[in-house]
Amino acid sequence: MFCLDATKPRPPIPSTEHHSPTEAGRQRQGTLWSNLKEVCDLLQIATAVSVNNEEVLFQHVQFKNGQRVHTIGQALDYLYVVNSGFLKTVLIDESGNEQVLSFPMKGDLLGIDGINTRHYASEAVALSDCDVILLPFRKLIALSHIHPALENLMYRVMSRELVREQAMIAILGGLSAEARVARFLVTLAERFAAMGYSSKLFNLRMTRQEIGSYLGLTLETISRTLSAFNEVGLITVDQRTIGIKDIESLRTLRRLSPRARASKGGAAKPSTPAHLSGSAAPAADLMHD
């Protein structure tokens, strides 16, 4: 059972900071706005919709680290596009325990889990200071009636999010603890590279406990596995800063060698996260594919 918390999140902070036009649109009366083309570029989808870009504008809002973007059970008023920063989406049980579903970052779309019931099915929380673009849901529907191509664009974005989730189920469903952590690091490195940042050195905005919740592993297993990867030269670890030394080995790793596992006290058997309910082939008793 998951609770329905209809409490509204804290009001977003008005946009007052200066951002470059390519990163965050333009300012009007102290508020940042992006046109449809800029939103589509951020979502990495090509648009042929003939809309006056200066008439159809979407507002930016800022959220501080720890602030909720939306809560479980809250009425669906907006979809959200992440312009900058990092977030997590979670389910919350009756005891207040979190199950992490995803870690959205730049170019990701939030809120689509609320379209069916018109209420958000998960909670989105900022893991850093974030800049998010508001897409009023009623406005999108009205625009799609005038411009059917816009509706097709939104379907494409939603389909991409579904494919990404299914890929996580297939990749992580039956892998060892070490392989899950390795794939997670590879995915992060690839996402950072796609955003124009370094894929070899980056900070983890999420805690080890949050990573464990996402991957179906304990906090201790996450910490032990990262230390083991550091020990064998796959990565470097400096608190939350991760350096990728051998991404190809991480990409193909199935499990650590017995020597590496023994030196770190072994690894716990992973459970299947609640959001990864699919099945995958069991991991082979080899280090790499």
UniProtKB/TrEMBL annotation:
One of its GO terms (cellular component) is cytosol. CDD domains: CAP_ED, HTH_CRP. PROSITE patterns: CNMP_BINDING_3, HTH_CRP_1, HTH_CRP_2. Residues 175-248 form the HTH crp-type domain. Keywords: DNA-binding, Transcription, Transcription regulation. SUPFAM superfamilies: cAMP-binding domain-like, Winged helix' DNA-binding domain. It comes from the Bacteria. Residues 63-111 form the Cyclic nucleotide-binding domain. It holds the Pfam family cNMP_binding. Residues 1-28, 259-289 are annotated as: Disordered. GO terms for molecular function: DNA binding; DNA-binding transcription factor activity. This is Transcriptional regulator. It comes from Massilia psychrophila. The lineage of its organism: Bacteria, Pseudomonadati, Pseudomonadota, Betaproteobacteria, Burkholderiales.
